[in-house]
Specification:
The chain has 9 helices and 8 strands. The chain is α/β, with parallel strands linked by helices. It has 2 domains: 35 residues; 169 residues, P-loop containing nucleotide triphosphate hydrolases (Rossmann fold, 3-Layer(aba) Sandwich), CATH 3.40.50.300. The strands form 2 sheets. A 6-stranded mixed beta sheet has the order 3-8-7-4-6-5, sandwiched between helices. Helix 8 links the parallel strand 7 and strand 8.
């Protein structure tokens, strides 16, 4: 009889532990869903950017939450709503950070979703991948555990960020021949106006990408004409 009582008590403790674990999993799942429900909400609340000039600017540290500037919320709404977005940026607005953050959120939240980042120079696209890795690494541990990488950050290429669920961000230097081998869900081209083959790169991305963002400071060439034509078409509609 005593053995039976001890067995019952043991089973009750085990059941209580399992119920508590189930409640914790449910709470964590709700916490993750809330954190990832919107890309701008996630960016503002669940990660940080880095500032290389933090000492000169007398900031408390190199990592800070994304600034709450009035143009960011409309910009992220545009990212979500439109399949093709052209941005004419100026320096220090953190628009490149915003574009990288949006694509990282998409890839992180959706298994097997891929995005290609392209710049004229390989060193510049490595910097964009570094932005993505920083945003991933600065998340709380519980969020990273829910969206794990395929391998640790230190073992990932300077030109890619791979997730365990098959999501991938790949960085490419300029040139249409670089794009042809990939069929990503998303395509992000930075400083488009200064890439000689920007038009050809855009044409190649159209064959697969569901979301295309072209982002550049003002410059001559294909991008200026393409952006103006796009604006005229919108006005005509």
């Amino acid at each position: 009889m005593a053995n039976l009582k001890r067995r019952v008590e043991e089973l009750e403790r085990q059941l209580g532990t399992e119920r508590q674990a189930a409640r914790q999993r449910e709470a964590q799942s709700a916490q993750v869903q809330e954190a990832l429900r919107d890309p701008y909400v996630w960016l503002r609340n669940s990660t940080k950017t880095y500032n290389e000039h933090w000492i000169e600017e007398k900031r408390p540290g190199p990592y800070e939450h994304f600034p709450d500037k009035p143009y960011f919320r409309p910009l992220f709404d545009l990212f979500i709503a439109e399949p093709i977005i052209c941005i004419e940026k100026s320096r220090d607005l953190m628009v490149s950070w915003a574009c990288v953050a949006y694509f990282l959120w998409e890839v992180m939240c959706n298994p097997m979703r891929g995005a290609v980042f392209q710049c004229q120079k390989e060193e510049k696209v490595k910097q964009l991948i570094k932005y993505a890795k920083t945003l991933y690494s600065q998340q709380p541990t519980w969020l990273k555990n829910d969206r794990p990488l395929s391998k640790p950050l230190k073992d990932q290429s300077d030109l890619s960020l791979e997730f365990a669920h098959g999501g991938l961000i790949k960085g490419l230097p300029g040139g249409a021949d670089q794009v042809r081998s990939y069929h990503p869900w998303g395509y992000y081209n930075d400083e488009t106006a200064f890439q000689p083959e920007a038009g050809e790169c855009y044409d190649e991305s159209l064959s697969a990408a569901q979301k295309i963002i072209l982002n550049s400071s003002a410059g001559p060439g294909w991008y200026a004409g393409f952006k103006n034509d796009l604006e005229l078409n919108i006005e005509d509609d």
